[in-house]
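Good morning C.,

I know you're traveling, so I'll keep this short. The sequence:
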Amino acid sequence: MNDNHFKYSNSVIALPLFFVLILWFVYWLEIRFDFDFTENGILPRTFLGLQGVIFSPFIHANIEHLYNNSIPLLVLLAALRYFYTRQSMAILGYGILLSGLITWIIGRDNYHIGASGLIYVLVSFIFFKGVQTKYYRLVALSLAVVIVYGGMVWYIFPKVDEKISWEGHLAGLITGFVLSILYKTPEYRKIIKYDWEHPDFNPIEDKFMQRFDEDGNFVNIPLVEPEDEFPPYFSSNSLVDYTIVSNEKNESKPES
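The tokens, ready to paste straight into the viewer:
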């Protein structure tokens, strides 16, 4: 594994800032022009409510709702972009669509709005993918996510808080787990340096392992007697018959 895969770029800051600014701009439009975008959220099992699959993450009920979603999005999107650069845009796009679609299927007959479903997608993906890679930096990131956002798991259950969309949270958790399985990260695959790390390694055939017995004691390898070598000349027990043929061409012998 090579840490050169973790390279800082301006997009690590630009992506979360741009996304959060869009959320605040949409909320500003509601306040400035007295719009109400709630009806553009997810209304489960209705054709019109399908528009919320795309629009709901950008719609918030009040300033507190928007603020509570903005901080986690800034942190999690930056982590996603830095540690999973190649997969980040796909996780963001498909995370919104798939979590919204699941919410549309299982949700209550109310409008579901807010970016909290996407936050659960990011938390779930970063946690499960870090554990799956078994790479120490990403596992550490998974543990950090659990420590900071582990308490969010309670809000995927019904009746914990009637005001929140637990269906959207559950949909985000499921989506993040599914995406962590679908999107492979071969760049974080452990590089095999030693023979014993190969899956087909046989310790019986290894010269070093042969110097230890079953109890782990050091033993000398028994000497192998060299096989008889062939003599430097060719010898055979087979009889060889020679036939003399007369010189019918009567060729003259060369003069000495």
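Safe travels,
E.
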